[in-house]
Amino acid sequence: MPRHHHSGNALQFSDITVRRGGSTLLDHLTFGAPVGSRIGLVGANGAGKSTLLKVAVGLARATSGTVSWAGSAAAETRAVAFVPQGKPLYPALTPAHALVLARSLNTEDWDEEAARSWMDAFEIPLSRQCSVLSGGERTQVAIALALGRGTPHLVLDEPFAELDPLARADAIDLLRAVLDSTGRTLLISSHLLSDIDDLCDHLMVLSRGRLTLAGTRDEILAEHPGQSVSETAMAAMRLHARSGERTAS
Length: 249
Ligand SMILES: Nc1ncnc2c1ncn2[C@@H]1O[C@H](COP(=O)(O)OP(=O)(O)OP(=O)(O)O)[C@@H](O)[C@H]1O
Prior knowledge:
Order of helices and strands: EEEHEEEHHHEHEHEEHH
CATH architecture of one domain: 3-Layer(aba) Sandwich
Shape: globular
Bound molecules: adenosine-5'-triphosphate
Number of strands: 10
Oligomer: single chain
Strand content: 25-35%
């Protein structure tokens, strides 16, 4: 299962282990995919998805192992935009203020059009305080700001969790169009296997900190004849789960 791609043009996790307070959150995880891939990350609650995404963007430190984005270390690259699970926004700012602030912080490659067209598509009220926006509206602001950064890579932690079914379908279609036109790399976690199925060409399944399935969609389909990607992912999520043998060190 270990996969290594040429470091110059790949997202590469190499032997990542994360230990915190005596628990092993991620256990010797190795995975690689070419830049421009759309990688779906699934796993049960507590499997380690958010931990892996934070390590991927340099917000958390691995106990050992390395992450590289086209040859740059996660902590050093400015080439990755991240939407964390809680969609933190400054509550006193409006989306219009947030755009101004984001533009001033990302002077070099700020893409106003990308951010604005996403907000427009979902009719986000630009002059309402973020503190009173609905969960779905906050989601769209957070995604729009990440797209505005114009980075070659995008990391989204359960971005669609608060979206209604229509908004979710529209967001997936729009995100796919953005990826098609920009060739960005996408690393996305979701509890909805259908989201992953609709968007992604690579899959990673985590179960209790271990990678139990990984590869391209085509490889996974070929290796599990007669099963859908979702069925195969469910089976992989069950490996190690609730077996009482939680990895501890
Ligand atoms: N700093 C920490 N110290 C100890 N344990 C931690 C720490 N951070 C996370 N954990 C534990 O590590 C496990 C993985 O957490 P993580 O947030 O990565 O899971 P997840 O797959 O994103 O889950 P969910 O689907 O519920 O969002 C959880 O059991 C969590 O309680």
